[in-house]
Amino acid sequence: MTEETKHSMDSAHEEHLHEAHDFDGITELNNPAPNWIVLVFLVTIGFSLLYAVHYFGYPDNGKDQISEYNAKVVAFEKEKKEKQLAANPAAALSREEVLASGAKLYIEKGCIACHGAQGEGNNIGPNLTDNFWLHGCKPEELVLVITEGVPEKGMTPYKSMMTQEQISNLSSYILEKLVGSNPSNAKQPQGLECAQ
Ligand code: HEC
User: What is the structure's pLDDT at 19?
Assistant: First the structure.
């Protein structure tokens, strides 16, 4: 086959592909891409849409970069806190956590039985909500009376039932939450008024 015949065959083949427009003899062929390439192209577009919606996408799906970053920060803070807690249990608790732990212990360790559900006192134990104290109002004085108790007067020693940290949380709870809370059925004051 000569170059000549090959060229004329190509022209015949291309004839029906010619677009209608003609600019100064420059014509265009309508030569579509093979189906498999079109298919790959469409699949790619479809995938990109799904990808964009999933990763940048609909609000709060937790997959976008900002959510990922926030989740990492939260995880990091948590890990940091756990490490701190392992190293020094008391320092890692926030004030609210200390007081919440105290409130829980107040119920769990049975203080309610002798000091009332609100710390109002009853015919066994004194009122813990007023500012009058038999054994002092300083945090370390409360810690001491809870740790050693007053066995001859009926106050249980708690040193074998709680850690020092728990006793300290409980004392903070009494001083910061119970004192001044004015429950309606409060027992009359006993001891000396707190000088602080
Ligand atoms: C079995 C009864 C009983 C239980 C249970 C009990 N207490 Fe007491 N508590 C007393 C009595 C009675 C006193 C008064 C002691 C005295 O007269 O010296 C007292 C005194 C105290 C005081 C000193 C009050 C002051 O005026 O100085 C504190 C603080 C206290 N208790 C906290 C607690 C806590 C916290 C718990 C729970 C972990 C608890 N108590 C459980 C009976 C009890």
Answer: 75
